[in-house]
Design goal:
This protein is mainly β. It contains no helices and 10 strands. The strands form 3 sheets. Strands 3, 5, 6, 8, 9 and 10 form a 6-stranded mixed sheet that branches. A two-stranded antiparallel sheet has the order 1-2.
Length: 110
């Protein structure tokens, strides 16, 4: 993006171009059903400081029922009750300073 900079009391405006933060490319493959203590993994990304795995009852993730944080690109499930969920993984993009998530996938936990 672009930032415009002007010193108070001076008429000159300086334009600064800021490089866009890199998009995260995290891929997670999983089946339509998983075990309650299964280990899930996803592609690692060097721009990620931390990952978050979320389970929700709705595709928009407004109602997150389980959220797990890890510094690794895998996590063993613990405490997820059997049922139908939407699951997604996100990474904290260090360059952008924000979380970026994959699309949610429907899954049944057995």
């Amino acid at each position: 993006g672009k930032i415009f900079w002007r010193v108070a009391g001076k008429p000159e405006v300086t334009e600064i171009t800021v490089a866009a933060a890199p998009k995260l490319n995290i891929a997670m493959k999983m089946g339509a059903s998983i075990g309650a203590s299964e280990t899930l993994n996803w592609s690692a990304n060097g721009a990620v400081a931390h990952y978050r795995l979320e389970f929700a009852s709705d595709a928009s993730f407004k109602t997150v029922s389980h959220s797990f944080s890890t510094g690794k690109n895998q996590l063993t499930l613990n405490g997820v009750s059997p049922g139908n969920y939407f699951v997604r993984v996100g990474g904290l993009n260090v360059a952008a300073g924000r979380w970026e998530f994959t699309r949610g996938s429907a899954v049944e936990v057995k």
